[in-house]
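Final report, closing paragraph on structural work. Over the funding period we assembled a curated collection of sequence-structure pairs, and we close with a single example.
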Amino acid sequence: MDTAYISKLSPNGVAGFVMANGAMSTNTTSEAEIRKNIIEDKLVDCIITLPPNLFYNVTIPASLWFLTRNKKSAGRDRSNEILFIDARKMGTMVDRKHRELDYETEIKYIADIYHKWKKGEGYEDIKGFCKSATLDEVRSHEYILTPGRYVGIEERVDDGEPFDEKMTRLTGELAEMFAKRSHLEEEIRKRLGAIGYEF
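Its predicted structure, as stored:
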């Protein structure tokens, strides 16, 4: 991240950056120091991890960083907090290599959560998706900004199937797959052997 851009932020300005996910956790001395400093200067407002394949020129997953000098809004002071949003599971693959986020159901949803958090009106942490973390929590994670560390794992809805029954069913399905694999391996060996290739 080029700190020159941060220095140009007006007192009420907000800057958004698209960053490679590695920037949230890299231990390279210079990058880790920059990350620590912008956190301690209370500039980091929100970090959003995005799903992979959103960009046409690169496939690596990226994140959005929002920085601001003024973390007070509508009478709410968020100076000692950072909003983390984990949107990695969002989006729909439109072809084999590209994913898109739907504006109405996904982009607007993320934006609404951010604005509710800023205003302090109607915002609630959602396990597995978003969390308003304190600076002390971020310090305890050694200034790593990966949202997954903070939002936790989403709660799964109980499907009502008793554990023993589910395990019996799943191990049966697994045994079936293993049997099919053995059969396929044998069939491949036969066919390769028929044309003079054996292993």
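The longest strand covers residues 14-20. Helices lie at 3-7, 29-40, 103-119, 135-140, 148-151, 163-194. We thank the funder for supporting this effort.
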